[in-house]
Amino acid sequence: MTKWAYVENNEIKGVYDRLPTSWKNISGLNTLENDVGMLSSLGWKQVSIYASYDADKYNEMGYTFSIQNGEVIGTPILKKKTALDATTVEDPLLQDIRAQRDKLLAQSDIYQLGDWQKAFDETLKLRWLLYRAALRDVPQVYLSTGVASWPEELGILIDNSISSMSSYLASLSEQSALEEPL
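Now predict its structure.
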């Protein structure tokens, strides 16, 4: 996949996986993908990736970008693979742990929205923060201890959150009733 860089005054302002659909009052910029000359005149350059490395020995961690002779060059940031990297890729239990963790995080995402957060007291906010942090740590804890240690029950937090939201909505309803003119 072609990466694109926006260059202004010989300085890279941003690197993107796709051209934007609109940019600086130009609709359909992404449709110009094959007109490299026009894009270049607007400051958009294709990124050239120069890298030759053994993917069995190195993990690609990201890229650094630079301008050389008017061309945008992407250079991969490499990290030597360790025995732990091989274990994490091939361990089916770790894959199951990550899948369960991702499912629990997805189930708890809604409670991070502003409307819910307004209804929570500081203790409940902290419990959600700690719960989600503990979920994110489960795979690493498993790798270092061999035990998947799960945080408190999601159901308990959800019940407390719904109770808190019900109280919050009731207080808003009471407040609204008091403010209505007779």
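The radius of gyration is 25 Å.
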